[in-house]
Write a structure and sequence with these properties.
With 278 residues, the chain is α/β, with parallel strands linked by helices. It has helices at 6-25, 34-47, 53-62, 64-74, 85-99, 116-127, 143-151, 159-168, 226-239, and strands at residues 105-110, 134-140, 153-155, 179-182, 185-188, 196-200, 212-217, 240-248, 263-267, 272-275.
Length: 278
Amino acid sequence: MFPLRPNELEDIEIQLLLEGLYCYYGFDFRNYAMASLKRRIWNVIRAENLTTVSSLQDRLLHDKNCLERFLLNLTVNVTAMFRDPSFYIAFRKKAIPLLRTYPFIRIWHAGCSTGEEVYSMAIMLLEEGLYHRCRIYATDMNEVVVHKAKVGIYPLRLMQEYTQLYQQAGGQQAFSQYYTAAYDGAMLSPSLKENIVFSAHNLVTDSSFNEFNVILCRNVLIYFNKKLQDQVHELLYNSLRRFGILALGRHESLLGTIHQSDYEALDAQERLFRRVTL
């Protein structure tokens, strides 16, 4: 039998690594988009001063601290307060009037990362007079970033940028009233946290845990392959009430998904949809 080429051996090592993570820890990355996954795995290998995928597997299975570092590098945590301001403008115009018709509003922010976009939603709901009758469930598979989100302290140097994004998103107040500066950090107002529940939840392996009026799952599905995207769309559909609102990222779509015909577009450009089927 001829020796395997280096890239073929690497593929086998990665498959074994992903199977090991799933069997031992329950983290399932087996259907993530492979090109992006390989790049991130090699970033971790270099950061750990290792040379092969197999050596990383050995360390991951015997060192939980390495697992924590691996998850932080492998999961995508690119976020900002009022990221994509036009999305918040569209949400104010198209979704808020619908939410006013509900006596109580359940919102799921799936893949909340370090929480900036969760607090952005809380601020918008507060300014629209709806926050007092909302409960936001903010979840992520990475417990480290969930903890950071729950703490709600961000670098003070980012507040100028966040203020500009807030204004572009239709902010109605002085953004500085939502945080307190302390040394080099900005602590968000405790009142913003009152109606938020932060928790670990894995979109790949965990099931639905409530019925929601709004689900935000923005810029998460682009890192999954088609099989996993369909699996997550099924979870989101089963978690959303009829006439509930689904928000996806700009580079994500319902086209070609198993539930494409179950939604109507509220704002196609900003990827805001409403479930219309029973």
